[in-house]
Amino acid sequence: MSNENALPPGAGAILQRPIDPAWDHIRGGTAPDRVSIVLYGDYLCPYCRRLRLVIGRLRQALGERLAYVFRHYPNERAHPGAEMIAHMAEAAGKQGRFWEMHDWLYEHEPPVRETDVREFARSLGLDMARFEQDTGSDETRQHVEQDLADGRRNGVTATPTVFMDGIRYDGAWDFYSMLEALERPVATQLQRSARTFASLPASGGLVLLLAAAAALVCANTPLAPYYEAFIHVPFGIGTPGNVLSLTVGAWFSEGLLAIFFLLVGLEIRREMTAGSLADPRAAILPVIAAAGGVIAPALIYLALNPGPAGRGWSVPTATDIAFALGILALLGERVTPGVRVFVAALAVVDDILSVLTLAIFYPRNFDPAWLAVSGIAVLLLYFLNRSRVYAAWPYAVAAVALGLCLHGAGIHAALSGVILAGFLPTRPAPAAGPLLAQAATALAALEHAENEIKQSGDENRRIEQEPIWDWASRNLSAASDRLLSPADRIEQAVSPWGAYVILPLFAFSATGVNLSVDLSTPEARAILMGVIVGLAIGKPLGISLASLLAVRTRLARLADDVTLRNFLGAACLCGIGDTVALLMADQAFPQGPDAAVAKIGVLIGSILAAMLGAALIATGARAHAVSPVQVAPEVGE
After folding, report:
1. Which of 6, 148, 173, 409 is most exposed, with the fewest beta carbons within 10 Å of its own?
2. Are 268 and 351 in contact (CB under 8 A)?
3. Residue 349, Cβ neighbours under 10 Å: how many?
4. Could you report the per-residue pLDDT of 403-416, keeping only the tens digit for each?
C-alpha cells in the first residue's frame, strides 16, 4: 500500500468533487439505476493491482449498472516512475485508448518500464509522435496533478482508496463485501446515510439542537404530563431511595454524562500529551482565557443576584463545545485554523473547570464512608494501569463501581468519567514492519489454503472450516488491535454515542422547561438577567480581557492567523452554554421554579451569544491576517 504522509484537515467521508464526464475516465454506468466506484489508484501499487480483480468481478456482476471511475494518485516517493506512467495513460486517453492502457498496466507483471508502455502504445496503433507530445504536455501534467489535489482534499492518504456513490468505502476489499455495499440493502443504506450525516461539521450540534427543541415542545404542549412522567419515573435496582434507584432524568444526568466526561477526559489527556496543551507556553492562553470566561460571568451574575439566588453563579460559566465548534465549521473559510485550535483548547480547560465545580460546590449529603470506597475504586484503576492490563472490561467494572460510590458520597458521578480517562492505558505506536509481516503471513497462508482446496476438486471443503482459518483470523485481529491503544479504542467506540445519543438524551431531559414560568418576582427576573448577561456578555468579556492581559504581559500569544474580529467572534460563541449549563441549573436549584428560570436564561443567552459571534465572524474578511490583538512581540523576535 502506498502512503502519503498527512491527512488534510477537515477531510471527510464525502467525495468533494463529484464524477464529471468531461474530466473523469468512466467505464460503464449507462443504466438508469447506476451505482459508482471512484478509485484513487497508482499503476505501480501492488494492492491496486489486486483490487482490480475484485472490481472486474463487480463489473461482471452488475454490468452497466456499475460506473467505474479511475483517478490518478501516483506516489512517486514509494513507486519511482509512477507519475510518468500516469502521464502515459493520459496520453493514450487523448487518442481514445485510456481503458486499454489502464487494463494493460494493471495486468502487466512488474516491473513496468517506460519502454514496455511505449511498445504497447505502438501495438494499439497510436500515433506515437502525438503520444510522446501528449505525455510531456502541460495539459496531461495538470490533469494528473488535479487528480492528486482532489485526492488530498478527499482525505486520500493511501492507494487504493475507494468511494462508492460518493462515500468513502472503508470496508473489506473482498468481492462479497463490496457487492453488498453497492447493492445497498436496508441496513447498508442506513449505515451510509448515518455516515454521510456524521461527516457534516455541525451534525452533532444539530442533533443536540433538535433534542432541545423536542424537549421544549413536549414541555409546553399537551404532551407535558407524559414528558414529566417519563423524566421522573423511578428506575433502578432495589428499594426506592438506595444508591441504585434513580429517576430517568437522574440517570441521564449522572450515568450518561459520566460517559460524556470520559470523552472529555480522553480529549484533555490527548491535548496534554500531544496536542495544543502539550507545550505549557502554547497552552497558557486558553487556560487563562477559560479562567476569565468563568470568573467574569460568575461575578456579573453575583452582582445581579446578591441574595440566596446567588447560588446559581455557576450556570453562565460553562461552554457547550458541540454548538460552538459546529457554528465555526459552518462559517467555513472565514474561520482560521488558529481560531479553531484556540476554541477547542479553551473548551477542554472549561470542561475541567466545570467538572471541578460540580464536584466541589454541589455535593449532595456528603458521606465520607462512600468517599473512602471511591478511593479503593481509584486504587483499583491505578493497579490495572500499572499492571498493564489492556482488556477494557476490568476498567469498565471499576469505573461503574467508582461512579456509584461517588454518587453515594454525594459527589456528581460524572466525575468518574474523567478519572477513568486518566487511567486508561496507552501504548507507544507500533512499528509497522512486524505487523505487516504478521498480517501478510496470515493472508498468504489463507491464499495458499484456498488454492489447495480449488486444486483438490473437493466441493465439500470450505476455507472457513480449515484449521488455518481460525489461526489466520486470530493473527489478523491481533495485528489490527495493536494499531490502537485501549484508550483509543474506547474513544473511537464511544465517541459517536456521545455526540448522537448521550448528549441529546441529556439535553432532552434537561431542556424541557415550561416557558410560562412566573417572572413577576424580582428574584426570578434577576436570575434570568444574570444568566443571560453572564453568557452573552460576561463570558466573551472575560475571555477577551484575560487573553489581552496575557498577551500584553507576554505570558502568551495568539496564532498569527487570528484576526481581532475572528477572536472576538469566537469569544462570543463560547457564551453558548446549553448542555453543562443546564446541568449546573439543576444542581444550583434542585427544587422550586428557579431552575426553570435559569434554564430559560441559558437558552436565551446561548442564542444571543451564537448570533453575535456568528455575525462578527461572517462579516469579516476571508483573508488570514496577523492578529492585531497580539501587540507585544516576544523577546528575541
Report:
1. 6
2. yes
3. 22
4. 888 878 777 777 78
